[in-house]
Amino acid sequence: MAVSELQAHHPGLNGTNGARPSPETRPAGGSAVHALVLNASMEPLCVVPTRRAVVLVLSSKADLLHAGDGHFRAERMALPAPSVVRLRRYVHVPFRRRAALSRRGVFLRDEGRCQYCGRPAENVDHVVPRSRGGPHVWENVAAACQRCNAHKKDRTPDEARMTLSRRPYAPRAAFWLLVAVGTVDPVWRPYIKDVIAP
After folding, report:
1. Who is most buried in 18, 53, 123, 177, counting CB within 10 A?
2. What would the pLDDT profile of 29-68 be if each residue is shown by its tens digit?
3. Does 88 share its domain with 181?
4. What residues contact residue 111 under an 8 Å CB cut-off, 6+ apart?
5. How far apart are the C-alpha atoms of 154 and 157, rounded to whole Å?
């Protein structure tokens, strides 16, 4: 479920009864662009703009767990820019078995590194080539640099005498929320480790 869909089903994520932030509330300093929202159960739920996370905290719908570098100022108050917030009430999310496969997702899962040599990745390689019957699934794709991809060609790693640093795997369903943002705040890692783990 995309963030927009989640917000449509759960108006509380948009603030108090869908209310918007007060126009006088403005970010100051180096406030983060996004905030991780955790369910009441501490499971990753979605990623929202920090401004929306501020509304959740101010409307007593969420608690601030970690602040970013910047802050939001209003006429009579200042609030740290949220990096991680936790909802006070549990939000039910329909079960989703697997995260959708994408080039961006493969690069994020493999930390932007070639899974054969460790250099910066530029391509997505099918471990068992598609021309040889290899499926286009998480378990058969790996990030690769141009050099390794060109050397491997239409062969399996064994045939090309290449070794994967780790076996490709399908991330947890909530992995989509990281793909949507494209970057991971180091503060989020303790809360998302189960999402990015094999």
Report:
1. 53
2. 444 588 999 999 998 888 889 999 999 999 999 999 999 8
3. yes
4. none
5. 10
